[in-house]
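thread from #wetlab-drylab

HS: before we spend reagent money on co-crystallization trials with zinc ion, can we at least see a predicted complex? here's what I'd submit
DV: go for it
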Amino acid sequence: PVAVRREDYAAPAWWIDTVDLTFDLDPAKTRVLNRMRMRRNTDVPVQPLRLDGDELNLARVLVNGQGASFRMEGDQLVIDALPDAFELEIFTTCCPAKNTKLMGLFVSEDTFFTQCEAEGFRRITYFLDRPDVMASYQVMLRANRSAYPVLLSNGNLVEQGDLPEGRHYAKWVDPFKKPSYLFALVAGKLVAREQRIKARNGKEHLLQVYVRSGDLDKTEHAMNSLIHSIAWDEARFGLPLDLDRFMIVATSDFNMGAMENKGLNIFNTKYVLANQATATDADYSNIESVVGHEYFHNWSGDRVTCRDWFQLSLKEGLTVFRDQEFSQDLCADASARAVKRIEDVRVLRTSQFPEDAGPMAHPVRPDSYIEISNFYTVTIYEKGAEVVRMMQTLVGRKGFARGITLYFERHDGHAVTCDDFAQAIADANPESELAALLPQFKRWYSQAGTPRVATQGHYDAVARTYTLNFTQSCAPTPGQSIKEPFVIPVTLGLLAQDGQELTLHLAGDEDADAVRSHTLVLTQQHESVTFNGIDSEPVPSILRGFSAPVRLDFEYTDAQLLTLLANDPDPFNRWEAGQRLALRSAISLITSGADVVGTTTLNDAFVDAMRGVLRNPTLDSAFKELVLTLPSETYIAEQLEVVDPQRVHAVREAMRAQLATALFSDWEWAYEQNQDTGAYNPDPLSAGRRALAGLALVNLCLAARASGDSVWPGKTLQRFKDAGNMTDRFNALNALVSSGHALAQQALARFHAIFKNEALVIDKWFSLQAGSPDRGGNVLALVKQLMKHPDFSLKNPNRARSVIFSYCSANPGAFHRADAAGYVWWSDRVIELDAINPQVAARLARALDRWSKLAEPYRSAAREAIARIAARPDLSKDTQEVVTRALA
Ligand code: HT7
Ligand code: ZN
């Protein structure tokens, strides 16, 4: 397969003004009549018309009503001699029932759905399937009335009625021009929760959440999330809902989380359905942010879209930033906002940092791709959001809102680039540091890799100054050996040794207002800042709020970290201090070569500090839960040059066991203190209490395992049975399973029996087992057995993920086996999945991205397993791209 390169972008040779689609829907053979009004783009040299297609059966091509001569070049339909403007009619058929790739038109549980981003529309009809071709659509849907009573597409329903032979039709017109990737249709037996809302300007809108009939009682939270999203976008950015009708439809077969088709969002059921019996607090929170995310795309993505797929982060990075801000703004207080920020950073550091250091590393605006679906990555999404966040830091919150307004004024209705976005934010803030540094700032778009900021502090007791010296660097990434310095906003403060926050007096800026937090903007490889009037060596709190997506190196002493952990007014750095202490202990034992068993990993000061946090009356439970959760194995592994995954696992387990036992009575206290009172509410405060109670239960069961005590496992089983909501129930089940207690088996059996008809809950059941600790080396056997369970299906992405990904990507202690059996099994699953659904297979293929860091024998075995996949002659280009890069 050939790579598509950003520098080869050329405007389309033809425009499509209108698209008139007629669908005769049938699972085995759907007929699609596509009538387009087209005209030549006179700005580019004369070229033939080349339309994209994929797995279509072509029946007829008419130009201005006459049979036209055309040829096929690969998958493209090419027409040579054409007038400057004409009507093109194309008649094709496709087979939705056999579409296991879930791209284009497919059937899920007897309902038709579409997924067109990025290149799925070409699986429905021949088209200029690129985001810069924007057209007006009208759509006629025809189908059997009793099998498909609901017929939906983008925009407004303008006509509907009966047809002969039990069929009916619906005609939809979208008032907005759009690229083909935003096209959608849905047809099936669905029911809707409906709500009419009035916007600030008095305009009425109809909101609908469509699901299968048994799921209506699980739609209230999604509807409320949508209503909150609409209000938030209008209040924060002045962006109103521009449609009479806004629909969300849920499907259980979906490659990703959701899709922002104009006015007709299609969602994975996982991000719609929730009631307290079936969904956890995490599910509620994810639904809120995904509903928000897709709704916010209505402006950032739909009204202003991407010129080409290299600009994907233009809409995705910005929209993730917007959904993160939305979720933070819904929080009742600063503590809950900080918790949300820590959670977001944790995702970035455990997923995106490894990506940026591995074979798939790419800039936020990539330079080339083989399969665009492989570039829906944490770099495009999460790092892209951090880039937008840094812009906001550099221009201020109000300045950023001004920039957003200018961006939408300038580019409404157009397909634009990341440069256009950055320019609009800078132009709206001409006096800002962003405007002054724009070309350099944009290196965040063009350079891959995570910058490292090495920092040293120097205290001068005579001059009473404290100087911080910064050195930034960035390791080479594939195709980019040299990196130029980035613009890095570093927010910092200073604490006295007694933990008091100091007022900052910057040397050379004596007129500045006295502040306690300052954002220094690094632009050079070496830079320093000096603070005056410092009476004794301070403790620096650097990169507050994680003000830039970088790795910060600072040789903190344990005492300094304990001071930050106990006192830093910046909650992010307070949490970070605890993580650094834990990481330090983990790494020193991992690299020492000492026996893990019998070694006390964590020192008394750390354990006491953790007790202090747990018992602290002024801290929220959610924050305590984050502080008391040790850094993940993946994160620990990332800090090492050479990784022995079994040793990392053993050390982390030993640390967990030590915290469980040493804090036993504190965990008991925390569990009792965080019991629910009153009705279930998924708000951050209550969810935080449940999260801490859940962590306490895990620790109590772990400690019981060590002591042989059966009281807490018994209480946990009782909690599992009595729980009034899924969060408490699942936390109890998890405590039994993760501590490997014998009671886990009966709890698992009971859980399955209660929820056998709830697919999303059964996903949790599979996932918990596939992710369970490998005490006797038997998880691989268990996973093989789970795949034979009657509820298992490889064709359903959620189910495949719940077993295979939970084992291969989320259970390193079980997956990385010295006998290589985990890797061999993984390679078989990638190959098997690739024939069904290449997108899902390619994601799974990334489980061994970091193979080259592994110690022997893992390293050679992992390479061999990847090579085994790469050797298959019939691989999709999705999977081929991933494994080829891994082996390069
Ligand atoms: N913009 C949506 C992307 C998406 C997608 C991409 C490839 C294959 C399937 C897909 N489903 C959805 C999701 C989003 O970011 O909102
Ligand atoms: Zn998105």
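DV: The longest strand covers residues 14-24.
HS: ok that's useful, forwarding to the group
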